[in-house]
Amino acid sequence: MQAAGRFVVLGALVALTAQARAQTGGALPLKHAPARTQTAITPADLMTRLYLYSDDSMMGRLAGSEYNLKATAYIAAEVKRIGLVPAGDSGGYFQNVPLVKRQLDPSATLSVEGTAFRPWDEFIPRDPGRATRAFDGAQVIYAGVWPDSTMISADQAAGKFIVLGAHTGPGVPQAQQVNRGAILARFRGAAGIAVVALETFPPQAANFFRQPQTILRDAPQATDTISLPVYVYVSAAGARLLLGAPLDSVRAGAAGKTVHGSVSFVETPAPARNVVAILPGSDPRLKGEYVAIGAHNDHIGFDQTPVDHDSLRGFNDAVRRLELAAPPPNHRVTPDQVQQIHVNVDSLHRAHAARRDSIFNGADDDGSGTTAALEIAEAFAGARVKPKRSLIFVWHTGEELGLFGSQYFTDHPTVTRDSIVAQLNMDMIGRGRADDENGGGPGYLQLIGTRRLSTELGDMIETVNKARKQPFTFDYQFDATGHPEQYYCRSDHYMYARYGIPIAFFTTGNHRDYHQVTDEPEYIDYDKLAHVSQFVYDVAAAVANLDHRVVVDKPKPDPHGNCVQ
Fold this sequence. Notes:
This protein is α/β, with parallel strands linked by helices and 565 residues long. 27% of the residues lie in helices and 21% in strands. Strands 1, 2, 14, 15, 18, 19, 20, 21 and 22 form a nine-stranded mixed beta sheet that branches. It has an eight-stranded mixed beta sheet with strand order 5-4-12-7-8-9-11-6. The chain has a three-stranded antiparallel beta sheet with strand order 10-3-13, with no helix packed on it. It is globular.
């Protein structure tokens, strides 16, 4: 590993940008995988399943797409073959999750004195996920620069279409940066909000906002029925049209023009589903309690523009080396270091032909957890002696979009919520090599949340580990209170923890292929994946056979509040 501050030169100078998007292809043909699975948890079985589950034909398994339905159909067929009991809707294995796609209404308009703003070029609307307020005929008023003390008050903004300046340019302190949530909270009574920041948007950001956004449309909370101001970004030229004068010539409170139009969003259903199955417990007294074992069944889909698989991976490998060498705890790489990285594409292509890639296969994220849960289920189903408590396996959809599947399952559990004694979550458990994580290797494993609700659960996991022939070395650094990565809040286990259910999150950590098209099954460590899967099996067995419920001895969070690590 190279020292921090140095850069990698892999040969001829073929520069790649730090925002390089991930790639199609790369997954080996299915003929390269073993043919059948067996009861025991084995590397060969995991390879069989993972090459199927992260194959290009799954097209990245995006929740709300037909490809995620295809992926969940595979899971349901497997648990049926294994012999698990359906625990979804209406006696089946699927729990339908009400996702919808929202996008700008094609009839949306924004104009001043007959001059129309072109959507996505001259104004970019942000979708609040609920109804937006009518603003046609509203008075424009300059609100000042966010978050300066000279801004107008919330009362002055009520019913007005406000134009809000922003501190822009490099080095703007975080406290002065635009914060949409804080802006909406302060000026909630406005008819509309136009933030003057469009010039700072890279093309990727504009394209992201233009894409339909998928949200969970569950039973509305009381606050969801209240409309919000229309929120858009405009340029300095757009602000001049709205105000009738250049931005730097007006003071906060100055009246502008009258704005016309309507900006709203339309919804279409986006079918998605959890897969839920039960292995009944063997003890008549305890079988009504459940140990939940979970992973997420979705990933992030595919891109429209293929890139070169191997040059992208070479670039990301160089970035990862710099990150691992950078000072803890953040391991940040500077933009100057990134600019110094170059990749010898010709050298890479001499190894094998160029691979154009646009599919985010998600082999590790979370094909590894999904297939591990299937292997664990098959091992328990084939065991001569079943655990005393029941096991409920849940493959959650929509984790990548906002933990939607686990949120829906825990809000609408198909078993009594209080009967779930613990939840074991697996997300990205197929890597953790030395070139993935500092201290990585065959025995490296990150644990998160194991003692946040139950000291006993954390202690049990340590005890089970010590009994192994090859114990894992646990890395608890990412479980630290306030850790900037916020892993405790970023995977499905938290949706259980918010209801006071003790959880354990097992992961081998981040790596160069995270959310890249290079997250392919060929880069998984199948021996490691089998060891982690067997360990989770052993932990589940210990919890399921305990003579009492895992003791909750820590404060429970607010189930409807924000997660705090």
